[in-house]
Structure formats: C-alpha cells, structure tokens
Records
---
Amino acid sequence: MLYREAGDFKTTYAKDSQTFPIKADRMAYFALLAVAFGVVPFLINDYWANAVFVPFLIYAIAAIGLNILTGYCGQVSLGTGGFMAVGAYACYKLMTAFPEVPVLLHVLLAGGVTAGVGVLFGLPSLRIKGFYLAVATLAAQFFLVWLFNKVPWFYNYSASGQITAPERSMFGIAVTGANTPAWAKYLFCLVILVALAWLARNLTRGMVGRKWMAIRDMDIAAEIIGVNPLTTKLSAFAISSFFIGVSGALFFAVYLGAAEVGEAFGIQKSFLILFMIIIGGLGSMFGSFAGAAFLVLLPVFLKNVLVGGLGWPTDLAAHIELMIVGGLIITFLILEPHGLAQLWRVAKEKLRLWPFPH
Amino acid sequence: MPDTLLYAIEVSLNGLMAGIMYALVALGFVLIFKASGIFNYAQGVLALFAALTLVGLQQGQIPFAHVINASFGTDLHHFGWTLPAVVAIALTAVVMVGLAWAIERIVLQHLVNQAPIILFMATIGLAYFLEGLGDVMWGADIKKLDVGLPQGINETIDAVTFNAFGYGFFIDNLDIIAAFVAGVLVLALTLFSQYTKYGRALRAVADDHQAALSVGISLRFIWVLVWSIAGFVALVAGIMWGSKSGVQFSLSLIALKALPVLMLGGFTSIPGAIVGGLIIGMGEKLFEFFAGPLIGGATENWFAYVLALLFLVFRPQGLFGEKIIERV
C-alpha cells in the first residue's frame, strides 16, 4: 500500500531517471545513510567494528569492484586477492614515503596504482575469453603474491617480511595504526564506501556501464554496433581494479594493521570475493552489499553457535564451518542462481502488489 | 659433458615426472569438462578426499570419530583392523562412485542449463564442502599413505647414468610408477571412449547434449558415469600424491597446479592434458633451475600460469583444444 510509484509524479527528466524511482526506496536509502552516519558511530565498539562493520565495508568495496568486472562486463577474474595486495603494498609504500600527505589521498592513489596493474593483466582478455581468462587471471594472483614476498623493496626491507601500517590521522584523529578508535575506522571506511558506491552506481547506468553490459551479453554483436572492445574491457579492468585496490589498501591499513601477503591476500581471498558477488547477485549493486554482508556475518554467526553455543573444539568447528559454507553456496545456487539481489527484486515486485495481488 | 648440462637434463627429467603428476589431476578436469561443460574446481579436493578415505579405510579409522567424541564425550578412534591395500582401494573406488552419484543427484541435476559460471561456483562450493567433510570424517592431521608402492631413488638409472656420464641421475621410483600409471590410464580411457557403447555415448554427449538426448542417451547416467571416472582418476592421483608427500590439506591445492596444464593443453583434450603437464612440469623446473637463483627462487608458484597465459595470447584454445568458432 505504501510501496508503489502511483502518486509520485516526476516533473523533470532528472527525476525521471533517478536511481530510486519509488519514494519508499528513496526514504529507506536516506534513512539507512542517516543511521550509518548518525547512529552507528556512537554505539560501535571494538568487537563490532573489527568483527562485523569494518570487514563488511571493505569487502563491499571489493565486491563492487569485482562486480563491475565480472557482473557488468562479464570477465571472470580470480585475481582479486593479488590486486588487493597491490593496493595494500602501494598504500604502504606511499604512507611510509610521504608521511605528511593525508592518508585518504594515499588510499586513492593506491587504487590508481592498482588500476594500472589491472589494465596490464587485463590485456590478455582481448584474446582470451571465458574460463581460459579466469585461469589466466590466476597468473596475476600468484605472480603478484610472489613478487611482494620476494622483492624486499616492497616491504621496506623489514626483517619479518610483513608490512605494518604506521599511524596516520585525518583531522587530528588516528585512522590507521594501533591507537585508532573503532568509530574512526568505521567512519573512514564508510565515507569511502559511500562515495565509491555512488560512483559505481552512476557509472554502471551511464554510457560506460551500457558498453560493459553490451560486451558481457555478446562481445561480437557489441563490436558490430560500435562498442570498442579494447577500451571497454580495459576500462572495466581499470575501474574494477581501482575499487579492489582501494579495498586492499583499507584492508591492510585500517582493518589488519599489519599484513603478510600470502596470508592476507592469497587465492582464498579471490574466491571469497567471487562468492560474495555470486551469492549477492552478478551485475547488481545491491547484490555486492548483500553478498558481502552475508559472507562476513556467516562465519561470525557459525562461530558463535558452534564454539560458543555447542562448545565444540575450534578446529572441528572450523571444518564444520567449511562444510556449511560450501553447502550453503550450493543450496543458494540451486534455489536462486541469480543471488540475493534477485530475491530482493522478487520481494519488491510482490510488495508493490500487496495487499491485492492479481 | 659439462656438469650444468647434466644437471639440466636431470632437472628436466624430474620436471617431466612432476608434469605427469599434474597431468593425472588435469585428466579428471578434462573428462568432466568434455562431457558436461562443467569446469570442475573440486577435482583436487576429490583427490584429497579419495586419499583420506583410502587411508581411513585401510587403517580402520572410525568415520566422524571427532564429532562423536565431541558430542557424547566418548573416546573412539579406530576399529582396530587394517585392510589390505587392494581391498581398501576397491572400497574407496566404490565410495567415489557413490559420491559421484550423490553429486549428480543433489547438485548437478538442479543446475542443468545454468550459466557455466554458476556451475563453476557450485563446484567451488562442492570443494569447500568435501574439504570440510574429509576433515570431519577422518581428522585433519597429516597422514601417511602406504599402499606398497616403491619409493626413493631408482638404483638402475642411477648406476647406468653414472657409468655413462660419470654422474648418476636421481629419479624417484614413485615418479616412474606414476608415469606408467598415467600411460595406462590414458590408454584405458581412450580405448573405453573409442570401443565401448558407453564410451560412444560419452563422446556423443560431449559433442552435443541435445542431440545425444534425442537419440535416447540418458544424460544423467552419463554424468554419473563421467563423475565416477573422474573420481577414480582422482583416487589414482590421490594415491600417487599421497604416497609422495603425505595426505594433507595441501593435496587439494594441486588442482590449482593442474589449471595451467589444462590451459596449455586445451580444456577438451585428453592427450593435451598429458602434453601440457609435461611442458609445464619441465618448463617450471628448468626455469627455477636457471632463473630462480637470479630472481629469488620459488618461481614454481607462478611460472606455470605466466607460461600458459603467454601461450594463450597466441593460441587462445590451447594446444589441442577445439578451435573456438564464434557466431553472432
């Protein structure tokens, strides 16, 4: 009854093409933003920030990035972990080399560096397609991880081979390093996520995004109607890698604080992000958020139930968790191959007709 | 002959042997990809699961002992018997066939006609599940697999090469057996697919699902069949790898090593898997031998992928893959 477009008259073109055409959606969106910015920072504590909110925000950025490449442009990538590592190491080098520059700039520059690397590894996509490409992106994953392990310059010749984020602050409040308050971590990531999500949403519904989708749906046909596959594919790689690089930089600098490349950015990370967009929904902005939330919350939930609730030893719980995650992924794919975003879409369609469905 | 050349020959021989081991895993991939177009990421975990089951059955472990112990406070671990290797292998083969049937029943049947990436993700989910299941059933500790295969340096080759060149080559007996087994396996698979009724059906399905269905071939039976064969290949790979380096989690990572082999050989070609395996195995060992010391070592982690990537840029379907023809 409340959720429908009837009575919400659009009087300008801008209004007609807005992201949320239904008034209730717009209100929900602004309400969510208000809660995220106005309520959560006052209530958040270290546990919630480190276990739930900060990883969710960072993974959401990565998921949006991968969704641009895989969901919108149709190029399956298994190199996400490697690109996140590029972001992390670029951020680390910049932070240590230019301590006086604001850390936000470092994070964005790290994204820029990753975009360059992404384009480089995206070049083969012009020749290689489908699963061959997916496996080819593994080359990026393994090569980059190896590179950051073996070349001491990247970790500033530290004895442990780890990179550790130095303390940097914005407006006088630490956002990286050991003394960061939980709310500062959260807000820093949130601001970046909101800005990038806004950017991604508007890119994907504009000309760039339509070109990506044309290439995804059928690349030869897209080429015939005048979409340049070179610039389109490479722009998808560049922008996707930018997002992933930013998330990698945040993951290292804000969330982990110290990172060892094989452990933090291994192949498992690539799969995790890919799972997020598959479970969330390929080619959907909502799906990136939903998938990230689902896969961040699931292990926390399972751990609380299995170890906290049933009192099983942690190693057994870890194995059972693996089974449950695997089983859930399969169940999800069988029940709804288009992900949580499709469930959301169906729910909204139903809601529009409620309470008088025809 | 100069020493470096001798070392290089020894290294490349060992690389060829390692390549055969990769090819054993790649074979399972190819079989499933050919018959169902599914890129089966779980092949490596299938090998791990097979090896775990084999060890568990052979040593009479009680499945799920850890769970039972944790739930009821009991202290179970073994039945107290050991089975002969042959019996254990046969039983494991039966388990793998059952697993293939269950996979078809529970997972694949519901995903017919979905996009390839969805099926691929389903096999990753399957990989996670089986990994967890293997650990929960048999425990996560590193196990020794011993089915009576000879191991260690082959004395004959060592002696012969020592007499010929003054330097004895180190070739592991196990690798030689692996090469032999891989040869037999490829031969058997080729004979099976060329000269038996089910082999013909398999090729028909690989060629065109719908046409195969229309002449009365049961797609579901073929899928169970092909997953069973892949399970059996995984068992062989599991025995070889398990004997070589113990049965542990890292066994499932050999699947990742099999991927560049597949890319190089082509996803749809059985000989391609073997040739690709040999090229990758030799290439990465030689590269590590010559370039590794210069750039910090451990190049084996990525060299195979970069090699396959560069190769694909020039020949996108791999060495023996079917030519990709695109129509609008």
---
Amino acid sequence: MVTSLMRKTLGVTCLGLSMACAAPAAMAVGDLLETPARPTELAPHRLLNDVAVAGDRIVAVGERGHIIYSDDQGQSWTQAQVPVSVTLTGVDFGTEREGWAVGHSGAVLHSSDAGATWELQLDGIQAARLAIASQEAEIADMERRIEDAPDAQKEDLEWALDDLTFALENMEADLDIGPVNPFLDVWFRDAEHGFVVGAYGMMFHTKDGGRTWQDWAPRLDNPQNFHLNAITEVAGGALVVVGEAGQIHVSVDGGETWERRESPYPGSLFGVLGTGRVNEILAFGLRGTLLESTDLGRSWTIVNTGSTATLNDGFADGDRIVLGGNGGAVLTSGNGGATFREYLREDRQGVMGVVPVASTRLLLVGEGGVKHADAQGKNLQ
Amino acid sequence: MSNPMHDKGEHYLTTPKAEPFLERLIFNNRAVILVLLTLLTLFLGYNAVKIQPDASFERMIPLEHPYIINMMERRHDLENLGNFVRIAVEVKEGDIFTQEYMETLRQLTDEVFYLNGVDRSGLKSLWTSNVRWVEVTEQGFQGGTVIPDNYDGSRQSLEQLRQNVLRSNEVGRLVSDNFKSTIVYAPLYEKDPETGEPLDYAEFSRQLEEKIRSKYEAQNPNIEIHIVGFAKKVGDLIEGIGAIAWFAGITIILTTLLLYWYSRCIAGTLVPVFTSIIAVFWQLGTLKLLGYGLDPYSVLVPFLVFAIGISHGVQIVNAMAVEAAKGFDAVTAARLAFRALYIPGMLALISDAFGFLTLFFIEIDVIRDLAVAAGIGVAFVIITNLVLHVLIMSYVGISKGGVRHVQNHGEKQDRKWRLMSYFSHPGVAPISLLIAVIGLGLGLYYKQGLKVGDLDQGAPELREDSRYNQDNAFIIHNYSTSADVLVVMVETPEEQCTQYNVLHAMDALQWELQNTPGVQSTASLADVSKIVTKALNEGNWKWYAISRNQTIINASIREAPSGLINTDCSLTPVLVFLEDHKAETLRTVVERVEAFAAANSNEEHTFLLAAGNAGVEAATNEVISKAKDMMLLFVYGVVSLLCFVTFRSVRAVLCIVIPLGLTSVLCEAIMAVSGIGIKVATLPVIALGVGIGVDYGIYIYSKLEKYLLEGKTLQEAYFETLRSTGKAVVFTGVTLGIGVVTWIFSPIKFQADMGFLLFFMFLWNMVGAIWLLPALARFLLRPDRMVAKARAAK
C-alpha cells in the first residue's frame, strides 16, 4: 500500500515510454558488465548509494545499474539507459551535462546528456591491467634503484621490492577471477579532469574526459592498500580523499601530488565535505564520528555529534550541515557544525545521500530508494 | 428391437412381468440372507468404529505433477523451510517493554521449548540466546543478546532492551513494527529425532491451545496470543473433521422427521434410516479394511451414501404403500415393490457410480479416495436398499396409518399435480424455455468470472473468520511476511551451490520475479551473501553486492540459515513471497520462472519448480484446469450414453440432459458470483451433481414414456407421471439436499463450499426434471410417432 502510494506520487516513468516497462522475454543471464539495467518502476524504491546535482537535475545511482534522474526536485523520476547492471556506488558531474558514475566490477560510466544515457568507459579488467602495468613499472624502477643504491640501503629497498611484488601477485590473482573490485566514489573538476577511487586503494585519473585513464594509486601514501571511500574538492581548490582506517589524503595541486594527513580517529571514514569556507573539511564515518579541520587537515577537532550511527554522506550550505547515516540517522546543524541534532527516521533505513530541495526540505537516498523529508529528516507524506 | 412390454403400454424397465430370478433367490431365502447380512454388518461395523481421522498432506496434492515430483524428490533437503509455528504474543494495553510482558514472554518461551516436536536449537524469541544485536566498531563487531545480560525488569534495563531491539534487525521479524507484539518462532521436527515417530499434528496443536494459548491468556489478561504454522493448520483441520459427527446427527434427525411426514408410518421411516446407516457402516468398515482413514474430503462420503440410501429407500416405501393400499400383504407388497424397482434403482445407482468414477481424472489422491469411498458406498446401497431394506419391510410391513396416508392424499395431491402438469402445456412450455434460455444466458455471462484455485486470503482450507485465519491476518498485518510462498529449487553439482555463477543467476531470477506482478518479495542465499558482504565491509551499503571473489562469498554465507543450503551443498532455494494465492498470480509467476529456467538451466545450475504452499497450489490448479473439461466431457458422455441405452432415443437424452446442463452452468455462475473457485473440493461437486442429478430425469422420463405409449396426450401423460412418481422425486431432491446442507456450517471452508454447491445442484436438478423436462418434451417428443414406432416394432 505504502509503496504503491509512493509510486504514484513519485510518478515514475520508464524512459518516458510505457512500453519499456513491459516484461522482456526471459533471456540467458549474462555478466553484469554486459547486461543493461532493466527498465523498472522499482528503481526509485531500491538501494541508491549516491546522489548528485547537474544544473536543475538530480541524479541518483544504486543497485542493479540503476540511475534515475528528476527535473522536478524529486517529485517524478525517469530511469536512465545504462549498459551495465552492477551495483553503482558514486556519481558526480563535472559540468551540467558531463557526468560520471562508478560502481562494482570496476565500472566507470559516462554521460554527456546530463544523465539520460550512459556508456561504459572503464571496467575492472582494464583497470586491473592499468594497475598491473604501473605496478610492473614501479617494480622495474625499484630494481634499478636497488642496483644503483649503496649497500647500506639495499636491504630496505629489497623489502620494499618484496612488498611491491607481493602486491602485484595479488593484483594478478584478482584479475584471474575477473573484475572483482568496486570503485566507491568519483569526482570531476570539469568535462576533462577527474578521479575515481575505490577498494584496496584503487585510484585512477583522467585528463581527457575518461577516454584514457592512468593508475594514480601509487601517488598516495597507502602502502597497505586500504579502501579509499570518498573524494571531494573543498573551497580553495584542495582535493581530499578519505578512507578505511582513518586515512585522509590532501592534494593542493589539482591532484598531481598527495599528502597523507594524521587522523585523530583510527576507524573508517566514509565521507568528506567542504563547508564552503576556504580550506575547511568535514570528514565522517563509523560510530557517529565527525572530524573538522580549518587548515586542510593539518589539525582536527572531533565534533560531538551525539550519534553512534555510521555517517555516509551529506551536504554543507553555509551554516547548515546535514549528514545521513545508517539506521535512519539524519544529523542536522544550523550553526556550521558547532552542535548537531540527530533524528532517527522511523523506517531505520540507511541514508546514503542527501540533497536540499525546495529551500528547507530534504531529498534522501539510500536503503529503500528515494525519500522526501522535512528539514530534520522526518518523512513527509 | 422388439419389446413385448411396449405394446401393453408398460415400460419394460419398470414393470417386468415375470418373477425374476433375483426376486426368487432373495424372497425364498429371507431368513438366511438376513442372518448373513447381520453378520456382515457386525464385522464391518466393528471395523467402521475403528476408523481414524487422517489429514495426510501428501494425499491432498497432485503427486504426479512434475512440480510435486520435483518437490517430493528433494523434500529432505527442504524440510526445515516450511515446518514451523510462529506464536505472536500481543500486548493489549501499552507496548512490549514492560516487566510483566517480558516475564510472560520468558515463561512462554520456556514452555514452548519443552513442547514435544520443537527443534529446540532453532527456537527463537527475544529470550533465546540466538537473538542478538550487532554493531560495527573500529575494532570489528560488537554485540550481545537482545535481553541485556543484567536484565532485572527495571526501567533502565527495559530501556536498554528497547535499544538492543532497535539495532537487532529483528523489527518486522521477531518484533512487530508497532512494538505491540513479539514472535516466538519454533521450528518443528517432522520426525522425533529420538523415537523416529512422526509428529502428531493433532496432539501438537492441542498442546499449543492448552499449554500456550489458554494458559498464558488466563495468566496475563493483558495479552492475546496468535498462532500460525502448518502444524497448527493441520491440527485445526483434524479438529474440524470431528465437528462432522454433529452434522451427521442433525442430518439423521432431519431426514427421519421428513420421512415420517412423508410416509406417516413408523416402520417406513425407521427402516430406510436404519438400512442407510448400515450402508454407511459397511462403507466405513470397508475403507478401514482397505487401509484408508477419514480425510476432510472422504469424511463427507457417508453423508452422500446416507442420502442416496434414503432417497432410493423412499421409492421402496412409496411402492409398498401403493401395493399395500391395493390390499396386498407385507411380503407380496415387498415383492411387487422389488420387482418394480430393482432395475431402475440399480440403473440410477450405477449412473451415480459412473459420476463418481469420473473423479479419477483428477490426479489427486484425496479425490480418487473420495471416488473409491463413494463408489463402494453406492455399491453397498444397492444391497442395503434393494435387499436388506425390502426384506426387513417384508417382515414389518407398512402400517395402517401409512396406507391411509397414501389413500387419503390422492385427491388433494391430484389438484397440485394437475396444476404442475401445465409445465408441458403448449402455452406454458415456450415461456419455460424462454426462462431457461435467459437463465442460461445469465449463467454463461456470470460464469465468465469463474476462477481456478482459492480466492480468499489466508489458509484456504479454513474459513476466513476462523481463529487460524484471524491469527494469520494479524501476523501478516504486523510483520513483514506473506503466508504464500513459492519455492524455486536451484540444483547444482555437489559442493557447488554457493558458486558466484549460481548466486548471480539466482539473483537475476529474483529480480525478474520482483518485477512480476503479484510478487511481494523474494529471498535466497544471494540476499544473505549481499547483506553479510555489506556487514563485513563495516556495514557500508556500497558493498551491497555479490562479490565475484569466491573467498568473500564463502565468508558471507558461513552463518546462512540451514534451510538455505542442503547438507552436500547441491540444492539451494529461492523463496518467492506472493501477495496472494489467486490462480492468475500463481500462473504469471510460474510462467516467468519456467521461461527463466528454460533459458538458464545448465550444468552449473538447474532451476526447478516448485515447493512451498504456493508451488503446491500452482500444481494443483494446473491439474484441476486440465481435469475439468475432461471430467465434464466424460460425465455428460456417460450419462447421455446411459440414457440412450435405456430409452433408445436421442430426443429422450436431450430431454433429460439439457436440464442438467443448465444446472451445471448455473452452478458455475453461482460459484463465480459467490467467490468460490474451481478447486480440489468443488470440482467433484460437478461430477456428483450430474451423476446423482440424472436420477430424477430417469425416473420422470421412464414414467412419461410409459404413459405416452399408452396413447395419452403429453399433458395427460405428464399428469400421470407426477401422480405416480412426482412425490418421490421431490422428496428425493429434498433428502439429498438435507444430506449435504449441514456441511455449510463446517469449520472447514471447502466442506462448506461443497455442501452449498451440492445442495444447490441436488435441488435444482430436481426442479429441472420436474419443470423443464416436460417443457422440452413438448418441443422434442412426437408422441404419435413414438406410438407408431412401438407398434411397428411389434
């Protein structure tokens, strides 16, 4: 009853053509990277992992290759044409029309029509080959350094070489299985320059709108290959990546070089935001943890959120900050993050992304799809 | 073909001239035969009382259907999936977080723990240690039992409990969404692991009522207990069979009163009742000897046997009273009655039996058992009615009151019959036909809404307002579960059931089905793998997917519920929860699964339909749909053939069969309008209704033909027909109707449906024979040609 009501109010259309909603004839199951997402009115009601804004359009991505977009502040949604059925994890628009989405099986999708249609630009096999090639280059480089190095340093370098070789073996073993690892987030500066980050320290960079990609992982100080969970740009132009085990990496030169910051928190960070003020960063993750820095991560304060929920994503708009988390947690601050108020939504479903709509209202995405909420996160309707 | 009887205006069937061999055999050895029949009665009666209720699940399902064959072959790998009871303990005032409620729940959980048949290791309630909350922390997981370790009933520990419940993932499963009830979930053993004894459903259900429901509702007036599960349902069904005994008593009393009103003779009342009961004893005793029990379907057969016995017995009483009125003594009257009735009586009973035989087209054991039981019963009625009844009557005779009743009522009756004879009048007959055609049209129109399968919510065997279905509605309403489950079995080579390709294909099937109308949700190992993979990645939803890495998959399903993987990992089910169990829903879903299975079954994984209650229903519906037309064709074929052989005239066959056809159509229309689907219980009604209903036509037409051949006009001939047999025919219809009408009050829904429909068919077929048959005769019969033909034959 509830779902059918929601379906009505959300007014889903399948590519605007009712025919596309009809059941297709049963086909043999294929690889998820080769199976287009099924047009379905269920898409706005299933897990959505991220949401982005492209001009006036809201675009959300989720499980089974679902990408949906809305031009009326989330009242009605249209399902995009997507060539894969993998779980998608992140979406970002470099311009109003040029957007990228990432997900499992190393999928990177690109749209140049503001999210209506998508094409596959990179998959896990290609990504793994790129990573292996750069790893091999690094090993060759290391071998040269060992040859040239004075004896005293040789032993240390040999250890480093062992680590590199071991990591290479892992990559090759993974590639034998297939495109195993997921990307977890994406950020694009414009129509050309962007980064994707993911599991086990994966990171790739493009300078040509995704036509070619470079393995960027070696540029981060992440020897244990921890997951990289999120990437964003903060006011002032610095880039920040956060990840597993409290990792925080910052780049002030457009991503060419990265510095690892000391983190006051050893647990995983799942999201990162700029507050809109120059060099200010909010990083957050497990157990209601929220870290705040005003100096690009050189020093941090731990903000008491009063929450124990894992915090996933949100937005900051002046003094207003809203964060969504697991178990239906929505944290709001009206004073730039000095204090937060936690609201636990009745459905207790995880919130993976929040965008502000209609001045005070919120559009939430996450477990169970799209939800309309008031400024505190309480369900509307 | 020459027949010497016809030229005398007597029908060869109804009035054989000579003493037949059978008559001599029976009447010359009256004492010996009575003694033999008494001994037989003692022997079979002794066995009859030992017969036991038996609600075997297997006999109620179409064992030859491929779905059921698939299910039965794999039932040992599936058994833990279906057999459990859920006991919802609802609090009336307040919520569950009170000391009193939790104390009641604790005691109740302990009590369930010790019930015989409960698989204790799988028992789940807020109070069992397997119900835990889990939280991700920097170091990994932390968790504990939902009931805090130091629980003492204080406000503080109740608040702790509330928090634990919230993070336990059990809201919607063990705890209702509104926190006003919780569930005690008890999986059951099909067989006692120590003794190997099969679970006694009736006893288990009784214990649930006594030790759980009554006890705790009395102990804590602020709670209400709701119990659902297959075991409880079967228990309630067996209980329902017991209620039938009351109906038997009521039926016998009603019939006896009616018989007395009809005959005004004590002997003429008690002897048919007595001999019909004897027939029931013989039938039950024989069933027992053949190893049958009484299931909810065959328990109805004794009523039919009794009613058929009475309705034919009435013909004997009637005939004897007429002969006695002529001044014959008891023995001679009995002899003449026997002589007049043994051929049409046998013919009618044989046609009944053929009606039952058509039930063999339905490949479901209970229905075939019903056919066997009814066949045996009718065969016995031939003996109890035509031999035992006649012989007893030859000793006791019809009382003077009874004879006077026959003599006195002649004239008053005649006026009534005179009026009714106008049904064959050339002015009235077209009106009757017009009404019949309109009725047929309406019937055909409404019959379009006729559905296959069960249409109501909840357990279709029981009434919608039954305790069980109310409990079921409560649980559906308060918890995220559906009672209609279709199980698709996924078979793989040994130790391969958790391979990525298997989970991936299962997930694809589930997505296909979630996009199918009528599907509420689905569940399988693939879901377990996704949700645990997510949990293993610190609860991050971005990891909610089946990993391509087998090591991760294996880690993710290590704790999977045992029902989702069989012992050698070669079978894993996909559970499909449906919104209802309507036939269209089932068909749509099953068609999707079949198309998917055809495209995706290979050496890695085979998709097989079907288990679960919805799977069984889908198979049953298919069997029923297939059997329906075959059965109708056969039953009408047999009845028409029988009539043709008897009367040697297509026109006669039409006169008799058209009213039956009208009744069948109207019956289906009534089913459609009153929301009764074609199902295991209602399909036999059509065969029984037609098989037994044709009797009226045979009795009426045989008399009508006799009087026409005597040269009477149609209306005159019909008047004479009504005078001689009209009363018996009406009475037969009424007794048959009474025999089944009490079922309407059965706690078992399908018995009520059967009773209602049979009641309609028995009565309406009688009306059809008396009202429509003469009107049809007006248009179809050519009396002058019939006479000419009979003369020519001479």
